[in-house]
Amino acid sequence: MKIKLYDTTLRDGTQAEDISFSFEDKVRIAHKLDEIGIDYIEGGWPGSNPRDMDFFDEVKKHGFKSARIAAFSSTCRRGVKPQDDPNIKSLLKSDTRVVTIFGKSWDLHVRDALRIGLDDNLKLIYSTLLYLRDKYQELFYDAEHFFDGYHANPGYALKTLKAAEDAGVDCIVLCDTNGGTMPDEITSVIRKVKKSVKIPLGIHTHNDSDVAVANTVLAVKEGIRHVQGTMNGFGERCGNANLCSIIPNLQLKLGFDCVGEKELALLKDASRFVNELANLPHNKHQPYVGNSAFAHKGGIHVSAVRRNPETYEHISPELVGNHQRILVSDLSGRANIMYKAGEFGIDLKSNEPVVKELLHTLKELERRGFQFEGAEGSFELLMNRAIKSRKKYFKLLGFRVIDEKRREGEDPFAEATIKLEVDGRVEHTAAEGNGPVNALDNALRKALEKFYPSLKDVSLLDFKVRVLAAGGGTDSAVRVLVESGDGKDSWGTVGVSENVIEASWQAIVDSIEYKLYKDEYKGKNKG
């Protein structure tokens, strides 16, 4: 039986502390979610901030395999008709085919937050949804704080659902917004709701009591087929229900149809990709997709699992894109190399010496702090270097970066000078920037554009710096993740060093070389 997966990482997930996605990040994540078979991707609240509207404007230009982009908003304000409400106007400008509206189900919120009468709230729900009904292919209603509302005043909570049902919505989503409902209460309330509401129901849970995934799974067992959650459980306070656990739980444990087998095998990659763009460390102990989820260390466990993995593994890790690890002697990795080679169109055989060499190089780089999730460009160049097919487009003869602050209260001044060689010709030039990395990037492009005019199309879309755990204080190594684009494609590159300029240089050079490689080799393959 098919489960409709509704991801709200790009809206609810961004409300988490320490998470802030640029709209370029959001577009990349949307494509990654589409790759793993998510049915609906909630892009944001168009009326709440310009970044969300930028996302909706941009995503119109993109094609998706199967996912539908959804916009999110609230019921109209008291005393304002839906067609005159600023939030609703912004919602319509987002021009999506799917929309989700939330409204109040808890009488306490109606009285204390909205400060309106209970009947007035019912009118807001009904009038907003009725106005939007014919403007969208699919209209969902999020019954905010429903379980708390039902506990406090079941009669009124059900009236709010009835108002949405009467307006003709396609699905009513029951929300445990405060995350305090226990699993037995979830099942009990859903059974009672189904006696009063005849249209399809959805579930949206938060993890404040650490039972969001359990509550979601139980809701599905009670007949709910619309499931909301976020990647890695991102969300406000303690987070939302984690789709990285929900999807394999439902599909592998209970036999529900969530995504295809190929898509499920991309789950770990997607989890790490989202973490990387959020600039957060990966939770190695996360179920299913964490590095330690199928790791074994020492003694009886290692002996048993090497004879039969089922002795200490509840599923085959490859089903979710993970792999078994023996910590005292890590034997994994070759399959991942082969998978990536195929993805990049590189012809490799698993028994070729280059695969072993590449695996050794990869492990050494990761030991130094490199991570290639979100840096696909650098990884593809690494593979090409290993098989001796990577062309050297220029030779660095040296660079110098000056970052000068001339007086208190003024911004620093940055200038970079670079000297390089292309096919025996030496180019020596300089450029300014709003920081040392920007100045270096500008100088490199300026020097190369006369040799490679297509670099004029390349722009730096995003730049992230993360201090790694190794070292101490300002001596720590840093990892720089750069996203670049040329108007057609975008790609990530990475650099690691104790010197932030050197780490940035590595990532920027990979970015430039990937563009030139892409134009020369991938263009030929497409032709």
Could you explain how this protein is built, in words?
The protein contains 18 helices and 16 strands. It is an alpha/beta fold and 527 residues long. It folds into three domains: 274 residues, TIM Barrel (Alpha-Beta Barrel), CATH 3.20.20; 91 residues, Orthogonal Bundle (Recoverin, domain 1), CATH 1.10.238; 58 residues, Double Stranded RNA Binding Domain. Helix 9 links the parallel strand 7 and strand 8. The protein is globular and about 80 Å long.
Task: Summarize the topology.
Layout: E1 4-7, H1 23-35, E2 40-44, H2 50-59, E3 68-74, H3 86-93, E4 98-104, H4 107-114, H5 118-133, E5 138-144, H6 146-152, H7 154-167, E6 171-176, H8 183-196, E7 201-205, H9 212-221, E8 226-229, H10 243-253, H11 261-264, H12 267-277, E9 295-296, H13 299-307, E10 325-326, H14 334-344, H15 353-368, H16 376-386, E11 395-404, E12 413-422, E13 425-433, H17 436-448, E14 459-467, E15 478-485, E16 490-497, H18 500-526
Parallel strand pairs: 1-2, 1-8, 2-3, 3-4, 4-5, 5-6, 6-7, 7-8, 9-10
Antiparallel strand pairs: 11-12, 12-13, 14-15, 15-16
Helix pairs in contact: 1-2, 1-12, 5-7, 6-7, 8-9, 9-10, 16-18, 17-18
What key attributes describe this structure?
527 residues, alpha/beta, TIM Barrel, Recoverin, domain 1, Double Stranded RNA Binding Domain, 3 domains, eight-stranded parallel beta barrel, three-stranded antiparallel sheet, 18 helices, 20% strand
